[in-house]
Amino acid sequence: MKRVLSIQDLSCLGKCSLTVALPIISAMGVETSIIPTAVLSTHTMFDNFTFRDLTEDMNGIKKHFISEGFQFDAVYTGYLGSREQINIVMNYFDTFHNNDNYIIVDPAMADNGKLYTGFTPDFALEMAKLCSKADIILPNISEACFMLGKDYIGEDAAPYEIKELLTELTSLGAKTVVITGVRFKKNDFGFMGYDARTEGFFQYSTEEIPIKSHGTGDIFASTFTGALMNHYTIYNALKIAADYTCACIKNTYNDPTAVNYGVNFEAEIPMLLKMIEK
Ligand code: PXL
Questions:
Q1: Cα(67) to centroid of ligand 1, in Å?
Q2: In whole angstroms, what is the distance from residue 27 CA to residue 273 CA?
Q3: Which of 33, 39, 193, 199 has the most crowded Cβ, counting Cβ within 10 A?
Q4: Ligand 1, CB within 6 Å, residue ranges
Q5: Of 226, 224, 146, 230, which is closest to residue 190 (Cα–Cα)?
Q6: Residue (of 126, 136, 68) closest to 101 by Cα position
Q7: What digits encode the pLDDT tens for the residues 173-219?
C-alpha cells in the first residue's frame, strides 16, 4: 500500500486541511500519515478561532520517523501556520524526498487577492522557497501572485497572463506548476499547468458552479495526491481532482441543508471511487 505524509493544520470544524486530506486519501486506498501543525477550533474564516501551535512537536516527530526508517511515496503539504513551520517542513523535504517519491505543495494562504488572516507578504515569499523544493505545486491565482511578489491580476486573468505566472513560478524550481481556479470563459472553470521538462502547457476545465466555499483547494490537492498514488499520470490525476471537486461543489449547491463553511465532499466519495475504479 502506498503511504502519503500530509503536513497541515487540524481544524476541528470547517472541513479543510487534514479533515479533508485524511478521509479522501484514505478512501482512495492510500495510507495517510499526518503531521498536525496546529489545532484550530475552526478554519480562519470564522471569528474568534482558537489556535494551538504544534511547531514544537514537529522536529521530534521527524526524528522519531527517521529512527523508525519510515518512507513515504508522497509528502503533501497545505496550510502552514508560520515561517518557522515552513522552515521545518523544508527540512522534512530534505529528509524524505527521494528519486521515487513526490513532494506536493499546495501553498494554501490566499484567495481572491487577499492573504488569510494572520499572513503577511513576507510569509508568501517564504512559501515560495518551500515551493522551490517541490515536484508539483498547486497555487491559485492569488497565491501565485503573492509568491512572485506581483500585484494580484484578478480572477478573470487572460490565459497569457496565467501562462506568464506559470513560467515565472517554474523558475522557482518545481517541475510541474499548476494554477487552480482559472476561469477560461463564462461557466468554464479549471486549472492550467506547465511541465518544465517538456516545456508544455496543459489545461482542463469543468462547469463552474456559482458558489464559493472554503476547503475546495484542499479537496482538489488531496484528490490529486490520492489519484497520483493510484498510478494515474499527473495530468489525469489533476483531471480526476477537478471532476471530483466540481461534483462536491455541485452537490452542495443542490443541497438546501448544506453548510456554508465547506462542501459536501463526503457525499461524493462513492463517485470518486468509481472514477478511480475502486
Ligand atoms: O482551506 C485552506 C485552509 C486550511 N487551514 C486553515 C484555513 C484555511 C482556509 O481558510 O483557515 C486553518
A1: 31
A2: 8
A3: 193
A4: 9, 11, 16-17, 40, 43-45, 79, 108, 116, 214-215, 217-218
A5: 224
A6: 136
A7: 999 999 999 999 999 999 999 999 999 999 999 999 999 999 999 99
